[in-house]
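Consider the tokenized backbone below.
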């Protein structure tokens, strides 16, 4: 298959299984087998794209003109390939988990869940391989719309309220900030194509660049930069597999990925580092990083605590973009993968606890380690990864982010990263510590979640360790980004 064919196939595979999933609504085993088959095939396609990129091949596709001078473009570059591999791998793992969770929890509308999940993954592939801002914006907005039915899955008033906040904030930030930023970029540079070194001339107005950076940072609402973050806790009304999708596979990763891509290929690192509004946005990201951690410590609801943890972790990637040096870009790119595996494990564990014990509050988990030792052990491992401690992958992404702050002489940001990691350690690892603490109360018998859930937890937790042992695979993939050789 040609390079262009591989790119188109990565978008088409998730879409083509949606009719089959819908037709098999009364036959859950074939329906879920079709989802698993599609996710496995997508992994193979993305591995083919990865191999082609490593061999130096150019993978690109263009449509006809949508408007004069504007086309839809797909292109494979290292950051997009990284994102596509993470999303396709975790689509498979999350589908395995969902089979156990959705059945054990007697969730309704399961066919709709699998269908919109597939559509969301297709949008993620479009974002990952977007060759210009027009293509990125199109798939970015369809992703918001395609995940909304998943957020309101329960169809309760609380779910609908959460869905209104979710869609209102994401579409609102796109219309008010993101779209004007794209129009201004076209007006200023006469191109929307992602380009090594950026698209703006050296004599572009510094004020215009400062305004554009603010518009892009706030416009990419999926990155959950404060004060446009409330959609993320509101979306926690969704079932746990949806929460895992939002936090690890699709939505929030699409946000920080888009910021990275815009920073690297629209501004360029040199011009981004000299942009006037960058420093103020850096400190806003630092505030988000610390404030969300403090709020997370106060949440008794387990999913709410994990939601605010995600807001904090997304700020790490935003910080990496805004520092605009090679080490910080490396750290931010790696953190997309590290956080994905760590956070999806935490949500899988939260769902397993709900299915097995019907408990949702942190204060209810005392002594649960005897009942669910596998689940709570995986929770501890994933917590270490989020905090950035060995033997987990989060160690390396935070290491490079720390080097980025030192490279720029931003000592205050270095301290903020250290403080935040300590807070991560406290509000996450205390949960499994309390669970394994001896308690006279509660059952002592084993009561783990269904086997499908446990298999998914083992795979994602194993990923946290694998990323620690083999970080060079990620580093070699993304190293061309910082050397100006990313886009074909």
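A designed sequence for it:
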């Amino acid at each position: 298959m040609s390079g262009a064919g591989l790119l188109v196939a990565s978008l088409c595979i998730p879409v083509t299984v949606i009719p089959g999933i819908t037709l098999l609504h009364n036959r859950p085993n074939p329906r879920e087998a079709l989802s698993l088959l599609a996710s496995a095939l997508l992994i193979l396609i993305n591995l083919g794209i990865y191999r082609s990129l490593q061999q130096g091949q150019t993978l690109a596709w263009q449509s006809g003109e949508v408007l004069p001078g504007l086309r839809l473009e797909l292109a494979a570059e290292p950051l997009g390939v990284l994102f596509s591999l993470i999303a396709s791998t975790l689509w498979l793992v999350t589908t395995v988990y969902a089979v156990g969770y959705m059945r054990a929890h007697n969730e309704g509308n399961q066919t709709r869940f699998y269908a919109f999940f597939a559509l969301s993954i297709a949008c993620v592939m479009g974002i990952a391989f977007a060759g210009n801002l027009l293509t990125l914006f199109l798939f970015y907005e369809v992703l918001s719309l395609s995940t909304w039915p998943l957020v309101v899955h329960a169809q309760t008033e609380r779910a609908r309220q959460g869905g209104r906040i979710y869609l209102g904030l994401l579409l609102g930030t796109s219309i008010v900030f993101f779209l004007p930023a794209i129009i201004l970029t076209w007006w200023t540079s006469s191109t929307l194509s992602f380009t090594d070194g950026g698209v703006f001339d050296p004599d572009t107005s510094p004020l215009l660049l400062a305004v554009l950076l603010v518009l892009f940072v706030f416009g990419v609402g999926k990155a959950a930069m404060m004060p446009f973050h409330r959609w993320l806790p509101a979306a926690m009304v969704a079932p746990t597999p949806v929460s895992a999708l939002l936090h690890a596979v699709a939505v929030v990763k699409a946000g920080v990925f888009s910021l990275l891509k815009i920073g690297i290929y629209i501004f360029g690192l040199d011009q981004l580092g000299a942009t006037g509004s960058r420093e103020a946005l850096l400190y806003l990201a630092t505030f988000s990083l610390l404030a969300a951690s403090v709020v997370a410590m106060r949440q008794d609801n387990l999913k709410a605590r994990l939601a605010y943890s995600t807001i904090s972790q997304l700020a790490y990637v935003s910080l990496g973009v805004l520092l605009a040096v090679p080490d910080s870009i490396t750290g931010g790119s790696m953190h997309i993968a590290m956080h994905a595996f760590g956070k999806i494990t935490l949500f899988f564990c939260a769902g397993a606890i709900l299915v097995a014990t019907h408990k949702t509050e942190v204060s209810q988990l005392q002594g649960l380690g005897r009942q669910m030792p596998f689940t709570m052990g995986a929770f501890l491992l994933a917590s270490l990864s989020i905090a950035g401690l060995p033997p987990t992958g989060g160690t390396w992404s935070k290491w490079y982010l720390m080097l980025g702050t030192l490279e720029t002489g931003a000592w205050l940001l270095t301290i903020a990263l250290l403080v935040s990691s300590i807070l991560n350690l406290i509000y996450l690892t205390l949960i499994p510590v309390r669970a394994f603490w001896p308690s006279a109360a509660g059952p002592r018998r084993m009561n783990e979640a269904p086997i499908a859930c446990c298999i998914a937890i083992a795979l994602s937790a194993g990923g946290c360790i694998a990323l620690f042992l083999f970080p060079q695979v990620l580093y070699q993939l993304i190293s061309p980004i910082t050397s100006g050789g990313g886009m074909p």
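The chain has 20 helices and two strands.
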